[in-house]
Sequence to fold (620 residues):
Amino acid sequence: MHSLYVAWQYLRFHKVKAAVLIAALTLITFLPLAVHILVRASEVQMLDRSQATPLILGQKGSALDLVMNTLYFASKPPETITMGEADRIDETGFAFAIPIYNRYTARGFPIVGTTLDYMSFRRLQVASGRMLAVLGECVLGAAVADQLGLGQGDALISTPENPFDLAGVYPLKMQVVGVLKARHTPDDRAIFVDVRTAWVIEGLGHGHEDVATTRDPQVVLREEDGKLVATAKIVQYTEITQENMNSFHFHGDTGQFPLTSVIAVPHDDKSATLLRGRYLPETSAFQLIQPLGVVQALLQNIFKIQRVLNIIFAVVSVAMLLTIILIIALSLRLRQSEIETMYKLGCSRLKMAELVAAELGVIVMVSLVLTSGLTALALHWQTALMQQFLS
Amino acid sequence: MTDAQPPFIAIEQLTFQYPEGDFYLHIPELGIDAGTKAAVIGASGSGKTTLINLLAGIVPAVSGQIRVHGAPLDQLGDAERRRFRIANIGFVFQDFALLDYLTILDNILHPYRINRALNLTPQVREHAVHLADIMGIADKLKRHVHHLSQGEKQRAAICRALVTRPPLLLADEPTGNLDPANKSHILQHLFQYVDEAGATLVAVTHDHGLLSGFDRIVDFQAFDCPQRA
Fold:
């Protein structure tokens, strides 16, 4: 006990030196652990999500981008396909299709345009409020609601792609009608809207004052074949309300409207095989992929990176340990007069070794406690950390 | 006829030489009785500190006999000399040799924390506080070394030397770093302890002005010094 007391007094007095040694040891032990935890968390999360998603249809190109955008709402949006492709999958009778349009964001979180089928497919339930019902509504993932401090009855404005593009997409003020229960998946960090609301954000659908009933004569440019042509002065709505909802409409065939992907849920294995036969790479303009295979290939690369990181950590750890040993050796040389004094006072060499060991022991113990604390934090936050990493 | 009491310190034909270097010390005969206040004087490098180290059993003699408080140091191994040191010696150093990371009280009690043979009891703590009170540093016990003046540091070092109640007090230039007022004050404390405890004091000093207070002067001019080796 005396040795521990003396060691503690020494470390208390030399706080900076002790803190540097503790920090170095903590980093040596914690960094490889943190990487291991994150890799395992990402493996579990990515495999779970990809295993639960049988097939994804998208434009030809990077399968990884398609999977990351569809499953994790991460990565840049892939080339679009059309809503007609989702209809065609339904028409095959092999699977039902869930459209995904994930291109826009609001306050840093992805706006995922989809249908209520997505909620059923992912077993998403509302913790408060209700599910999507009409145009202009949104449902927030648990993490979005938590981080933005929003709930049912609040509004959320979509972020314009380019604020300097005057002819571009106008922000849409969306009504929050519900907050989803936390699932510890990427769904927690998404804002869900009906796919048609996403098209409104895109500018494919809009609402404006009725040209026929407007009192402003400058709004009407001319009349052609019984139809009124409006001028640029016409007021376009940036919020969908009960009052103006009926004025919202889409120009053109919605079958040609864009989607970033379609989740195809086959009725059985045979249907899946038959459906995949329809989208053979040689004959199809699209790619129908099994996300599990893509994710497994990605994980293999992550594991390779982890192995490289482990080697780097090992080399750095050895270098750091050697440095620590050097620091301790130099410190003992500097403390030579102290050691001589203690020897003269009757201290044995064994007791002196015990005193030095106690100092090192306290440093190691404190760094182990810190490592344990940081590891517990990493384990607690691994899902959020992994999602941050993915997005 | 009564048997003569053997001296507390008895040296005969003692020689010492460091493994490297040409330092050589030869003391043909030296006896110091118990309760004596002895000053050791001599030129720099003549071996005064070496004598202190030999008396404390820190270094072993090359040949000859050295007996302190009945213990034949020339015949003891390193561990036995260390045990002898713990039981019999109180050390006062010129540079105080206090540990900067300990409070003054912890410095005084330090011998008890680094020697398994010594048991740190509440009575020992009381004794340490009592010594600090006598030395006039009782209000500094919770402070660290750098808060103390030179004189206070040496008084703390003397408390550490006395806390084990040693029969032999070895002081290596205990007043070397002190101003004149503190020099006599420190020596008075050492003399007081020796008188009250019946202990023996061997103090190395360069300051011939302080010699009047000592009972015995050991002049190293009488011994072989390195220049004559």
Summary: Chain B has a mean pLDDT of 87. The domain at 35-47+81-228 of chain B is CATH 3.40.50.300 (Rossmann fold). Residues 180-197 of chain B form the longest helix (18 residues). The radius of gyration of chain B is 18 Å.
